[in-house]
Amino acid sequence: MRKKIINTLLIFTGTAALMVVILIAVIKIYDMILRETQKSHQLQQMEMAKAAALGISTHLDHLVEDMHLLTFLPEMQSLQRKVIQTNVDFIFKHYDEEAISAIFVTDSDINLIYLKGEPLPAWALPLMKRGKEQINIPTSLHRCWYSPVHPLFEEEPESGMLFLMVIPLKRKNSTAQTNGYVGYLLNFNMLIRYFIEPLKLSKNDFAWILDGSGRLIFHPRHTEMLMRTPTDSTADCMECHSSFEVQKRMIAGEASMDEYTIGEEPPKIMAYVPIDLQNEKWILAISTLLPEVTENLRSKFRLFFILGVLILAAIFSLGYALYYINSKRIRAEEAKRQSEQLQQLQQQLNHTSKLASIGELVDTVAHEINTPAGIISAQADALLLQETLQDKNLDEINIIKQQTRRISKYTRTLLGYSKRVPFDPRPINVVELIEECIYLLGHRFRAQKVTVIKNYTRNLPRVLLDRGQMEQVFINLLNNALDAINDYGKITISAGTAYRKVALDEPGTIAGIVVEIADNGRGIQEADIKQIFEPFFSTKLPSEGTGLGLYISRSIIQRHHGTIEVSSVVNQGTAFSIFLPLNLKGMDES
Question: Under 8 Å CB-to-CB from 579, ≥6 apart: which residues?
Fold first, then answer.
């Protein structure tokens, strides 16, 4: 009952956690879509701003070309009123009088000689005189001086915005001396009507313009702010603007996108493009209210979110119903599986106990075999000492002697392998230990007609090993290799020095011996590779293995501060690589 309650709590906790994760994911997706929608709209704003800026620049460049046409005419050098009138009239009649309010010519002291069109504002000629040095700077033929944009009447910003374009008349054969000046008085508001108003802006988009000093020279909604700059902001400005950092970035930077807030209005997004006019600079911006851009998306997302919640609720309800209906069947299957697993573990435990009993029996049998073998060997020695022994019997007695020694050696090795002794590492020649294990399994190699290929590096250093335990490791791996191959198979045994990083928390590498035992057998499935070192896991039949060999082998190698690795290809073979460090400082000797 308690377990059922815990499982139910876990299910509800997991469900709640999943819903929280889904909610967080939905919020992140929503935020990402909002950002993408905002960025997409700003890119559209940027393209429209670039198109309008290009139109304004191209239009002004054409006007500059026409002004230069006037300055190139030899008749203009005389500054005769009649000649000027003829040429200016020819130029003036080709333009909309609303766009070019006036064309004028002055002498070198900026005294008005001729004017065609509207009267010049009071600020025009004084502004030219203050900018005379800039106008006279010797540059390319296409240079034109632009005045700042000003209202027709300084005290009335809404009276109409105008600006000057001026080119010096250079004296013939001279680039330094100025004979006079030709200028246009341009209607800035007409540029807005020609290039800004035709833009297909949405109902929430609006364009506005700053000049290079930060003055607001055009805004469709806040005409009261015209001609103001961040540097001369007053207290009433700061009631809406917490700062003018955005405007400062616009003045200093290139074309870009930004976001800003004014007063209690919703946040706005915009894209802006600079228009470089020789000595002047305008910054054209297109803005919109961010909530207006995302309103349609938010409406759709709310519907999607409600629908998603309903679907999730239906799914979780159905899942809980299925869980409730199938809980008894699942518990029955789990009980059956646990019973089968318990039976399997009991069989493996019985088999392990049987192997332990066999080990004890091996000791007894080995002693019993060794005793008669010793007697036979002693009798053979006695016969060899007899002087009457004939030469024809000498070879037979020597064979008996040799075979009894072989029996004694085998039983001693078997007894040494089966002894249960404490962990006792001593300097061991690894190659000799491997050869002894091959000798113990010689009958299996001969029975399966297996070819053993040995690749030993000469003069390998001795390694601190527990002889009995490492014998167990090598015999386990050799037995596994023999089980994996068919008759006439091949086993390759290599031994050499190497440097490895044994533990992740230990800096550097250490020297050691690498022993590799490889076969060309059936290999190990990829799904089984990760489990072969787990206790009681075996790919053999229950009657052929306990599933403890590799688990014990890895434990022994780890006790020696070494590592064991495996690589395998199905139907091609398996290779086990053992690394045994030479320096075993701090080894557990318990």
Answer: 498, 500, 502, 512, 513, 514, 562, 563, 564, 565
Beta bridge partners of 170: 178
- Residues paired with residue 163 on neighbouring β-strands, in sequence order: 186
Structure tokens at 284: 């054209």
Q: Which residue(s) pair with 107 in the sheet?
A: 180
Measured in degrees and rounded to the nearest 5, phi and psi for residue 152 equal -55, -45
Rounded to whole angstroms, how far apart are CA atoms 555 and 562?
A: 10
- Flag whether pLDDT at 589 surpasses 60: no
Q: Count the Cβ atoms, other than its own, within 10 Å of residue 63.
A: 17
- CA 182/CA 166 separation, integer angstroms: 6
Question: Which residue's entry shows tokens 């491997």?
Answer: 434
- Which residue do the tokens 């007409």 mark? 190
Q: Residue 586 — pLDDT band, cuts 50, 70, 90? A: very low
Residue 553, pLDDT > 70, answer: yes
Strand (E) positions, 407-469? Answer: 426-428, 451-456, 463-465
Fold of 423-581: Heat Shock Protein 90 (3.30.565)
- Distance, in Å, from the CA atom of 581 to the CA atom of 503, rounded to the nearest integer, reads 12
Interatomic CA distance for residues 33 and 468, integer angstroms: 67
Evaluate the CA torsion angle 376, 379, 385, 388 in order and state its sign: negative
Q: Which residues contact 139 (CB under 8 A, 6 or more apart)?
A: none
Q: Where are the domains of the chain?
A: 38-291, 423-581
Identity of the residue numbered 373: A
Q: Are 438 and 471 in contact (CB under 8 A)?
A: no
- pTM, full prediction: 0.49
CB 164 within 8 A of CB 146: yes
Two tokens at 228? 């103001």
What is the average pLDDT across 357-379? 69
Which residue(s) pair with 256 in the sheet?
Answer: 272
SS3 string, 238-255, reads HCCCCCCHHHHHHHHCCC
Residue-wise pLDDT for 382-401, tens only, equals 777 776 666 666 767 777 87
DSSP bridge partners of 574: 519, 568
pLDDT digit string, tens, across residues 497-546: 888 776 555 566 788 999 999 999 989 888 888 888 887 777 776 656 66
148 Cβ contact partners less than 8 Å away, ≥ 6 residues apart: 127, 163, 211, 213, 215, 280
**How far apart, in whole angstroms, are the C-alpha atoms of residue 202 and residue 174?**
53
Report, as an integer, the average pLDDT of 276-282.
Answer: 88
C-beta separation of 99 from 195 below 8 A? no
- The answer to whether the beta carbons of residues 494 and 575 sit under 8 Å apart is no
Tokens matching residue 115: 């004017």
Q: Are 184 and 195 contacting, i.e. CB atoms less than 8 angstroms apart?
A: no
The residue assigned the tokens 């020597």 is 398
Which of 442, 570, 578 shows the shortest CA–CA distance to 512? 578
**Residue corresponding to tokens 């050691």:** 512
| CATH number belonging to the domain at 38-291, selected among 3.40.50.970, 1.25.10.10, 3.30.450.20, 3.30.70.20 | 3.30.450.20
Look at strands 451-456 and 490-500 and give their pairing: parallel
